[in-house]
Amino acid sequence: MEKRMAAATASASASYRLLNQKKHTSKRFLDHRRLVTNFGELHRSSSSSRGFMHHCGTAPLQSFLSRFLWALQKSSLNHIQNLPGIQHRTFGLKNVIQDEEELQTANTDWMHKYKGSSKLMLLPENTDQLSQILKYCNSRCLAVVPQGGNTGLVGGSVPVFDEVIINTRRMNNIISFDEVSGVLVCEAGCILENLISFLDKQGFIMPLDLGAKGSCQIGGNVSTNAGGLRLIRYGSLHGTVLGLEVVLANGNVIDMLGTLRKDNTGYDLKHLFIGSEGSLGIITKVSILTPPKLSSVNIAFLACQDYISCQKLVFQAKRKLGEILSAFEFLDAQAMNLVLDHLDSVRNPLPSSIYNFYVLIETTGSNECNDKEKVEGFLVDAMESGLVSDGAIAQDLNQASSFWQIREGIPEALQKAGAVYKYDLSIPVEKMYDLVEEMRIRLGGKANVVGYGHLGDGNLHLNVSAPQYDDAILAEIEPFVYEWTSKQHGSISAEHGLGLMKAEKIYYSKSTATVELMASMKKMLDPNGILNPYKVIPQSLLLS
Amino acid sequence: MKIMVAIKRVVDYAVKIRIKSDKTGVETSNVKMSMNPFCEIALEEALKIKESKLASEVIAVSIGPAQCVDTLRTGLAMGADRAIHVDAPSTLFPLSIAKILKALVDVEKPGLLILGKQAIDDDCNQTGQMVAGLLNWPQGTFASKVVFDKEKNVATVDREVDGGLETLCLDLPAVITTDLRLNQPRYATLPNIMKAKSKPIKKITPEELKVEIRSDMEVLHVKEPQKRKAGVILSSVDELIDKLKNEAHVI
Q: Looking at residue A269, what DSSP letter applies?
């Protein structure tokens, strides 16, 4: 297992292949690592300032470590070497993680699909410390991986080899909140759920909500431009994030932490860091516009017989529930069955019959009587016109959360079902489900193809669930899924990002000229290429 | 046989309770209100009995201010046939409720009265027992299983008691109060919500039932329980012993 962690490659298919391999010898894997074409060169070119270099082996690590601590607090240096007993009390030392068990967690992604072999994780407590770390790493060409809650799905938050992990979890202070404007300013390591409960007391909500809220951090959310369940109502983070503080690769702190809604002075550079997955800089502070919490929430769980009805329903819902609509999610029968089979606490709200599609609609408004009447009216119409075959409306908060549990439980159920190939695609709504059906035909009985997602935003989560990872299955899926999406002018990553999994696939959704411009920006902001290497942008462009 | 089910509108189970600033009670304005979960279980049981053809009609009753009609609509959407709303102020104590329920039983003559074992707002756990006393009917409280014998006209009720399960055989008519594990209430489905719109809700006042609402109790004030202090992590057994001896004074 550990040895397997030593090996990873820059392409998703190769990563799958590695994880599919059950038997191997450690030596072969070490060789393998050296033999991967590009990376062999990377190591050799480490003496030049343009290439990537990783500290390998103990000696550079030790010296790096002492430098880091020395830089932060000179007095602590002696403590590390001579006084192990008080290590935990000394400043800085508790922010240096070399414990193997803890590192193993940090080296492995949520899906256990990507594994790095970092020997060092640093937990800076403030921007200044993070800046010093980056400054040092940059001067030594040491690669780093910025990490938040490590809940990403594309291998973007774990090291590929032995990059230094910089986890922002200790930077978790709320800096300010303005009740009038609703602007929240906080540090990057704040866990989304903690921000949600902080705001709840003030009568506000976060403009984004996602299944991983219990562990994901706002800094990670912003740097991956996370979408989630409320996007249909409150828009993307490019709209709600008002300002950022970012540390560049060379340690320079860029203060763009404005709290203004309108500010047209020059280039709005914060947008570069929203969704660039830590490849241009590390976000340290976020200022975000939060909407007020509205008291009237209605949730309906509906059944539709075919996909065209789901489409018509979203069309109608946007018109008739427009101002109160806060979520429109769909799942197919395969997703529903997975959840019912694998999650004990979930029960089917509509057990009387089997339907092909299920839709979850949430409305949020300020007047309970009006909203309820509106929702019931809309649903009765939908039922009478045959768009909806059956449905249930939550009568209390407990029922409401049990409806959400079905939709939010799908990733967990897939995880329990075995191996899963995940694709997160933006496709025009009318074409969206065609892909799921075509995929089902391609794979036949080899795997269970599941479709669900944010129908209201045209975002399909296509998941292929199989008993175990299998090259033959992967070959059926890729590159077909990317080519199909590209043909529909869709995006091969709607909200998950590119990470390691899709870095080389960027051309399916972006033109060559666009990607080249991205690469030149990356080179400008991070000339040594230390920030989250091998991810987001194809390596070939960065090496030239 | 008719079954009557008592339903209470309470602050939703999932809402964090806040005390009114004048300490006269719990804040209920602009707070999500729902059917008391034990009442939902009571209604579900009545509906199941009706579905197994052992009852002909399920009547949902709620006593309180006008908004109780919303809760009754939920009951109708779950499947109750009709509803009765007794229009009364919101601060009612169990004895008054029991008297009103008795008066309604005298009018409707159900073979069974099912209630939740308690409401999650005042946690009284008295109404079922009191109304059984007033009616002089047998009672099976904390029911976790109910079985009917139509021929003998009896109900067998399993009760969750401290030592295990107690099984009672009740002659009908009887009062049953429901515990958490009796059943899992159904959802209000769209077709049933549509049907519920045309089901009748009869409004009646305590005066019409000739029940005088009088309170033997006065609430002096309501306050929050003391906040739990955060724990501390100690570094050694010696420190623990010291704290237990000198701070907690327990050893």
A: T
Average pLDDT over residues A418-442: 94
Question: Hey, what CATH class is A174-289 in?
Answer: alpha beta
Whether residue A394 and residue B37 make contact (CB cut-off 8 A), yes or no, is: no
Residues B34 and B221: their CA atoms lie apart, in Å, by: 24
Per-residue pLDDT at A45? 33
Residue B30 with chain A: CB contacts under 8 Å: 295
Nearest to A295 among B13, B30, B194 (CB): B30
Cα separation, A342 vs A350, whole angstroms: 18
What is the pLDDT confidence band of residue B92, given thresholds at 50, 70 and 90?
confident
Using 50, 70 and 90 to split pLDDT, how confident is the model at B215? Answer: confident
Question: Given an 8 Å threshold on Cβ–Cβ distance, is B14 in contact with A396?
Answer: yes
**What is the C-alpha to C-alpha distance for residues A144 and A125, in angstroms, rounded to an integer?**
17
Q: Is it true that domain A418-496 has CATH number 1.10.3720.10? A: no
Over residues A147-163, the pLDDT tens digits come to 999 999 999 999 999 99
Provide the residue ranges of all domains of chain B, joining segments of one domain with +. 2-246
Burial, A75: exposed, middle or buried (Cβ in 10 Å; 0-12, 13-18, 19+)?
A: exposed
Residue A354 touches partner B, C-beta closer than 8 Å:
no
Mean pLDDT of A26-46: 33
Q: How far apart are CA A19 and CA A41, in angstroms?
A: 24
Contacts of A344 in chain B (CB under 8 A): none
Provide CATH code, domain A296-410. 3.30.70.2190
Predicted confidence (pLDDT) at residue B30 exceeds the cutoff of 70: yes
Nearest to B43 by CA among B204, B205, B176, B150: B176
Is A296-410 in the same CATH topology as A2-167?
Answer: no
* Whether A398 and B13 lie within 8 Å, measured CB to CB: yes
Q: State chain A's mean pLDDT as an integer.
A: 83
Which positions in chain A touch B195 (Cβ < 8 Å)? Answer: none
- The reply to whether A302 touches chain B by the CB within 8 Å rule is yes
Closest to A17 (Cα-Cα) out of A7, A27, A25, A26: A7
User: Which residues on A lie below 8 Å from B184 (Cβ)?
Assistant: 347
CB contact under 8 A, A397 and B194: no
Per-residue pLDDT, A544: 63
Looking at CA atoms only, how far is residue B197 from chain A in angstroms? 11
Residue A476 has pLDDT above 80, yes or no: yes
Shortest distance between the Cα of B8 and any Cα of chain A, in A, equals 13
CA B124 to chain CA centroid, Å, is: 9
Which CATH code of 2.60.120.650, 3.40.50.720, 3.40.50.620, 3.40.50.10860 fits the domain covering B2-246?
3.40.50.620
Domain ranges of chain A: 2-167, 174-289, 296-410, 418-496
pTM of the model: 0.80
What is the model's pLDDT at position A93? 62
Mean pLDDT along residues B84-107: 93
Mean pLDDT on A478-492:
95
Cis upstream peptide for B173 (omega within 30°): yes
- For A214-251, how does the pLDDT look when each residue is reduced to its tens digit (9 = 90+)? 999 999 999 999 998 889 899 999 999 999 999 999 99
